[in-house]
Design goal:
Calcium-transporting ATPase, cytoplasmic domain N, Cd2+/Zn2+-exporting ATPase, 13 helices, six-stranded antiparallel sheet, 2 domains, Rossmann fold, seven-stranded mixed sheet, alpha/beta, 13 strands
Length: 292
Amino acid sequence: SIMPATLSAISNSAKSGVLFKGGVHVENLSHIKAIAFDKTGTLTNGTPEVTDTYVHTDWEKEKVFAIAGAIEKESIHPLAKAIYAFSTDYTNVHDLNIHHVTTVSGHGVSAYVNDETWEIGKAGFVGEKDAFNFHGGVAKQLAEQGKTIVFVKANDEIVALYALKDTIRNNTKQAIETLKKHGVHTIMLTGDNETTAKAIAAEAGIDHYIAECLPDEKVNHVKQLRTDYENVAMVGDGINDAPALASANLGIAMGKGTDVALETADVVLMKNDLSKITNAINLSGRMNRIVK
Ligand code: ADP
Ligand code: MG
């Protein structure tokens, strides 16, 4: 049966916006030694915006933006939404026969435009060597500013690059700092490239980061963290995060996250506020002292 102190911790947490799905999770939170965070939508707001674009001089800018926008319209990825929104200024381009749009999770999206093959996505998806050399290697310096880089390839040639910036949530830095003071290790998991990941981790004050992390690799990284740190929580918001949430000692979902993440998690942060985790840790610690 559930102890009165546990019940009171659950109800006090709920009032502050942290929903525990059972008493055992309160106990587990007090033992957590490391927390892994998904980047997009968890540490950041998850609404990236296009900040810079570069189009190959042989190509008509309007046409490239219109095509990329039309292709990304078919994808629900936050980057795709931003690239589509950016393209709505270029609606004077017609007669595009775009077909066979295929999204490749963790990589990008491909399609046919008339009989040309187009690919939009990360460097590894369009070919790293050409991607990093595009426009005098501009990708590197944009990534150093914490921007995500998306390349556009048409028939084996890089024709454009988008840089997108997603802002860190208001309470992220404070939350990470407080966790570190409590002796909790913080790790960021992201599908983004090494350079961007490093810049965002520094901005957020995160101890470690794992970049180029494919959606189905998150589970293995969480398992590895469990051997390194014993008791590990995972915080995420996306459909792709659900398996990782389930494989952590404690799965924590952002309240505005996808249904699957909310369902899989043991704890839900109602207001998307990471700083509530530290409040809950304090409460769980107090509760355990009372129970024992
Ligand atoms: P994260 O979950 O860290 O935001 P993903 O694993 O979804 O990243 O994607 C990794 C990388 O693949 C992105 O940073 C981007 O470069 C590329 N990518 C994925 N999906 C798309 C898309 N629909 N359009 C353009 N690029 C994409
Ligand atoms: Mg996410």
